[in-house]
Amino acid sequence: MKVVTTLAELGDVRATLPSPFGLVPTMGYLHQGHLSLVRRARAECASVGVTIYVNPAQFSANDDLDSYPRDFDRDLRLLEAEGVDLVWAPADEDMYPPDFQTWVKVEALTRPLEGTHRPGHFRGVTTVVTKLFNATQPDKAYFGQKDAQQAVVIRRMVQDLNFPLKVVVCPTVREPDGLAMSSRNSYLDPQQRKAATVLYRALTAANQAFSAGEREAEVLRHIMSEVLSTESLALAQYISVADPDTLTELTGTVECALLSMAVYVGKTRLIDNMVVGDKGSVIGEK
Ligand code: AMP
């Protein structure tokens, strides 16, 4: 496994790697969710690269950039064990030099949901992912359903800007009690960690109601909201039943939907989602 930081080193190593080359972009502090993407890439590609970069451009001033968990040595051990060929951990100076002024922005899809509450977040994501794609030239790029809107936005960007690569979205990996794995779960104290299962419980309740025939968007939202309100340590920021393709909020009868939410547990902001209906369980899979 080659570990590189500069663009020059990256270019040298990338040139030696066989096609198809699969890329897994991450912010590090790896868990089984990240590793599921790596394994999928390993199974589908002749060579695999992972990027580790806590992208300042996707955090806003009151976000957790400084406290975001990092453990580079542990990440490298985990990736080595997965048979990864290349790890690229770019430096801020290379990604955003002082005269940097070019941004990639996806429009309508970035306005609702996370976009409403994290202004500028997706502009940071799409810009850094563009830079990662340009520098590594992947044939396939792997993203998690855990960040459903991000997956939809990146699919759109890849199509709109004619990136010659395939976006693969992998299912959300959960802890045994249902909590979606996330680097941010490490912020939770034991009591909050227990409370954090309420996101999964809320999504599951709505999913079960849908399976039992409930089709009213408002009722599905209400079911999630009721479950969330039973947990005193949890405070919902949004609860959504949206069109899985356009991400616009649905009203009336729905045939398929992206159920999603952002919930504060203490100071920690957690997101989770499930897709119900005939679109299958993974967002944007056609
Ligand atoms: P992050 O390091 O949080 O930026 O995540 C890097 C990639 O891993 C993104 O495509 C995420 O959607 C994906 N990911 C994060 N958590 C999970 C999870 N629990 N299951 C599946 N994929 C995940």
Q: Any overview of this molecule?
A:
The protein has 286 residues and is α/β, with parallel strands linked by helices. It folds into two domains: 2-170, Rossmann fold (3-Layer(aba) Sandwich); 183-276, Pantoate-beta-alanine ligase, C-terminal domain (Pantoate--beta-alanine Ligase, Chain: A,domain 2, 2-Layer Sandwich), CATH 3.30.1300.10. Helices cover 35% and strands 20% of the residues. It has ten helices and nine strands. It has helices at 7-14, 32-44, 72-81, 92-95, 114-117, 121-136, 148-160, 190-195, 198-211, 217-229; strands at residues 2-4, 21-26, 47-52, 86-88, 140-144, 166-170, 234-242, 256-265, 268-277. β2, α2 (32-44) and β3 (47-52) form a beta-alpha-beta unit. α6 crosses α7 (148-160) and α9 (198-211) runs antiparallel to α10 (217-229). The longest helix is centred in the middle third of the chain and has 16 residues, at 121-136. The chain is globular and about 55 Å long. The two termini are 34 Å apart. The structure holds adenosine monophosphate.
Order of helices and strands: EHEHEHEHHHEHEHHHEEE
Q: Calculate Rg over CA atoms.
A: 19 Å
Provide the helix percentage. Answer: 25-40%
How many domains, as an integer?
2
